[in-house]
Amino acid sequence: MPENDDPRWPSDDKDTSSTEPKGTKGEGQSTVWLPMSGLANGKTEELSVPKVTPESGSWFEPVVEVEDEPDVPVTPTPQWSAFAPVTPVEPEKPERPAEPKTVFVKPAQSQRGDEPDWDQFDRGAATPSRDPEPRQEPPVQEKAVQDIPRRPEQNRVEPPRPAPVPSATMHARPVRIEPAEKRFDAEATVGIQKPEPPSEEPPAAAAAPKPKKRKRKVLVITAVVVVLLLAGVGGASAMPKVSNRLGLPWAPNAPKADIPKPAGISRVLHGPDINGAGPTKDGLASALAGPAGSADLGTLTGTVVDAATGDVLWDKNSGTPLTPASTTKILVVAAALLSLDHGMQIPTKIVQGADPGTAILVAGGDPSLTSLPLGTDSPLYPGAAHVDDLVAQVKKATGGKITKVQLDVSLFKGPTAAKGWDPEDTAAGNTYMAAVVPVMADGGRNDPKSDHAPRIANPAAALTQKIAGKLEAQAGGTTTAPKDAKVLGEVKSQPLVEFANSLLQLSDNMLADVLARQIAIAKGGEASFTGGAAATMDVLKQAGFDLTGVQINDGSGLSDQNKIPAKVLSEILAVAAAPDGKDPRTAKLRPLLAGLPVAGGSGTLEKRYADPASAAGRGWVRGKTGTLSGVNTLAGVVLDTDGRMLVFALMSSGSDQNKGRAALDVVAATLHQCGCR
Fold first, then answer.
1. Is 68 within 8 Å of 197 (Cβ atoms)?
2. Regarding the domain with residue range 281-339+507-518+525-673, which homologous superfamily does it belong to in the CATH classification?
3. Would you state the pLDDT for residue 400?
4. HSE (side-chain half, CA atoms, 13 Å) at 44
5. To which H or E segment does residue 510 belong?
6. Residue 455: how many CB atoms within 10 A of its CB?
């Protein structure tokens, strides 16, 4: 509406300008009366509803035909709205009975000239807004969304048409009344954006609530994160490992009672009791009567000795020679400890060959070389030398100019298998043994980490091929290295004590037989099975041990032709376990005890002593095992309940492997439980 127009109101409540003359399209129809008498009292008595329908062929534009109207006194419409009766155009098709109708409201005569009478509206009706300018929108059809036919084009938004300049003859625009007590012009069609009602507040004030929403969103996210963190921490703290480490009250390891007061400690290690009263022969005989008489033991021989006094406390045919199996290794290790320096190391060399570019691997008798990379210790032979170390030395010495690698295995003599061995013992794929040669990697196994891995057929040749490959050279067969040849590289085994420890823990047959040859070499004998056996017995005899009935053909005990009485085993162990200073041989033989496997804890005894009958011996019995077909032996030491060191040697012949082992374990466990006075 132009700003210079004055608002005017009709002179009465009747609209006489909308009546159509007869003969027109809407003949006989007129706008329904809008009685306004109740508006003065704040009530609306009746409202007229014009019918506005889309023109045929259009889904978006309402059509309202406006006829020329007779001149009637017109009062200018107030600035905030333009109210005037309107005559609707009837549609060509019959209208739907449930179709919503547009509501028109005719205001009452203003009481103050240029301002509307605000008291004329119902308290429940919407209060009109003050618009500075008239709405630039066409008359709209107020129609429920669900009643308008749906087509794809319906989602388009049509721009509003410019509204005609308000005049005295202008029809009133439809008004939408909303529950918020505000009036808005009705939309022309569905899809046209609804105009926002004018606001008296500045735009900044309207945008003020947005930061609150963001703040609320941030608070919600923060709360969720905190809850998740608390849940995660709570879940983690419920885990046994976490709760134990943090010392939480619900930890499985949490103290179930008050923490006891600290107990006094002593930094002095106490050895076996050598001064108190030891077990008596009668007491021990009574304790062992049942376990030693078990039928599962077949033919049993054995003896028990008090290490502190050397007295024999129990004996059962201990002088009878029987097949010792792997307890033969006790004799070999004892002879090595008595005759060799405990720090002795077995060398392996690569020397310059007679031809340029030729290197010779000189075998020194060490089968414990490991093929594992440098920095990775062998789990089978801790402290063993590395093949890669030897190769690196050769590369540094020659600049990598090696074309051929040959092998010198002249150190060992005689056959590679002993008398009394099963032919399968040295066959490829066997897990017990390989051909006894003076050099190999990982004891001849194809897996450097597994004691039960299969052995390869020719371990010395396989190592030569491996070294040649690392030097990018060819393997050139066997030869004898020239005397005083230039050494290109050399590595050494672990010291004798550690070598012997690995031998006893694993009951390693290869290490035992090459160690017997080292004894023979040190004594000036032949490095063979015969030479090794002879050197071993000579050393023990010279050390004062009675070897009556002893017959050995190898150092490993694989030969079923070996014979050793139980008392020889017990005498050697008793000297090793004697009190310090009592026997001059003890200091040299003491490392023998350290290498014995622990019941239920290490070596060949690791998986034994799990039965209830022998469980008492777990951690207390230390012994060397021996097993062949029909043969089960066990010799070692154990502390009784009084802390007394007892030495035992038990040899069973004609017994089942599993039952015989279990029966021997019960005897040894009984010794631990015995006070036997």
1. no
2. DD-peptidase/beta-lactamase superfamily (3.40.710.10)
3. 86
4. 16
5. helix 509-522
6. 24
- Three-state SS letters, 8-65: CCCCCCCCCCCCCCCCCCCCCCCCCCCCCHHHHHCCCCCCECCCCCECCCCCCCECCC
Catalytic residue among 329, 349, 404, 567: 329
Residue 473 three-state SS: coil
Q: Is 318 a catalytic residue?
A: no
What is the distance between the alpha carbons of residues 320 and 311, in angstroms, rounded to a whole number?
Answer: 19
Distance CA(95)–CA(509), nearest Å, equals 110
- Classified as helix, coil or strand, 507 is coil
Weakest-pLDDT range from 85-99, 309-323, 612-626, 644-658: 85-99
pLDDT at 462 > cutoff 60? yes
What CA–CA distance (Å, rounded) separates 166 from 259?
A: 97
Q: Which of 294, 507, 614, 652 is catalytic?
A: 507
Higher-confidence residue: 217 or 327?
A: 327
CB under 8 Å to 340, separation ≥6 — which residues? 496, 518, 519, 522
Position 460 scores a pLDDT of 96
CB 27, CB 15: distance < 8 Å: no
d(Cα 432, Cα 76) in Å, to the nearest integer?
121
Other Cβ atoms less than 10 A from the Cβ of 266: the count is 6
Q: In sequence order, what are the residues at sequence separation of 6 or more whose Cβ sits closer than 8 angstroms to the Cβ of residue 217?
A: none
53-73 as b/e, with b when 16 or more CB fall inside 10 Å? bbeeeebbebbbeeeebeeee
Q: Which residues pair with 492 in a beta bridge?
A: 347
pTM (2 decimals)?
0.63
| Residue 39 binned pLDDT confidence (cut-offs 50, 70, 90) | very low
Domains of the chain, by residue range, sit at: 1-198, 210-241, 281-339+507-518+525-673, 347-494
Residue 326 designated active-site: yes
Of residues 568 and 205, the one with the higher pLDDT is 568
Of 326, 339, 493, 559, which residue is the catalytic one?
326
